[in-house]
Design brief:
With 242 residues, the chain is an alpha/beta fold. The chain contains 7 helices and 10 strands. The structure holds 2-amino-2-deoxy-6-O-phosphono-alpha-D-glucopyranose. 2-amino-2-deoxy-6-O-phosphono-alpha-D-glucopyranose (GLP) binds next to helix 5.
């Protein structure tokens, strides 16, 4: 793992955008795995700025998003579809047929999950997977458990995740209890991984990710087994790794 400890969220976002844009510049038809949540917001803003300044283009890029809440339709302001279209897809030259993101209102879930993994394979696999991290060490929505799922699957969200994500909803009751998420092998098969974290509330998860035992109880700790992971964190998230 390469670990970059930067001053603050702004620097994390700049670094993350430069990793993603370099990937696209070196390989214009890159397959990107994308994450949502508050952490990559600054990175998306910077990528949009770079696109507007004609420093990077997305015309050949293919994207696969990590996850989505079940029960929220794509127009719901807290859906990850809404987030992605608002923060990136509608702002750059990425055509609809190159965007892949699970929808929260699909009926045939099992079929969808299988097809999603096959689609990633047909695209040649993910070149660069961007990840945030939950306070409990989850990545995507792969929650701590005694076993982890390999492919894209339906998840019952952990109470800690429901509580952490309730800040985006009017009440705790409105937070969906289920989600669809890429599995651990979908993530681990990416050629490169970029893990981002900011803030003191992520310090414990970051410590357990990079220096703790590898355990399914901290899904991000499995990233220690991946040959090409870049971790970009601010000082607060790096507090416990010195
Ligand atoms: C969410 C998402 C993750 C995200 C994480 C952290 O539940 N499913 O993909 O990385 O939680 O979110 P945030 O960046 O808002 O702290």
């Amino acid at each position: 793992m390469r670990i970059h400890i930067l001053k603050d969220y702004e620097e994390v976002s700049t670094k993350a955008a430069s990793v993603v844009s370099s990937q696209i510049i070196l390989k214009p038809n890159s397959v990107l795995g994308l994450a949502t949540g508050s952490t990559p917001l600054g990175m998306y803003q910077k990528l949009v700025e770079m696109y507007n300044d004609q420093m990077v283009g997305f015309s050949e890029v293919i994207t696969f998003n990590l996850d989505e809440y079940l029960g929220l339709n794509p127009e719901h302001p807290q859906s990850y579809n809404y987030y992605m279209y608002n923060n990136l897809f509608n702002k750059v030259n990425l055509s609809e047929d190159r965007i892949n993101i699970p929808s929260g209102d699909i009926d045939k879930l099992e079929e969808f999950c299988k097809e999603y993994d096959q689609k990633i394979d047909r695209a040649g696999g993910i070149d660069l997977q961007v990840l945030g991290i939950g306070t409990n060490g989850h990545i995507g929505f792969n929650e701590p458990d005694h076993i982890l799922k390999t492919g894209t699957h339906v998840v019952e969200l952990a109470q800690e995740t429901i509580e952490a994500n309730s800040r985006f909803f009017d009440s705790l009751d409105e937070v969906p209890r289920r989600a669809i998420s890429m599995g651990m092998s979908s993530i681990m098969r990416a050629k490169k991984i970029l893990l981002l974290a900011s803030g003191e509330n992520k310090a414990e998860a970051i410590k357990r990710t990079i220096s703790g035992e590898i355990t399914t109880e901290v899904p991000a700790s499995l990233l220690q087994l991946h040959p090409d992971v870049t971790v970009v964190v601010d000082k607060k998230a790096a507090k416990l790794i010195g």
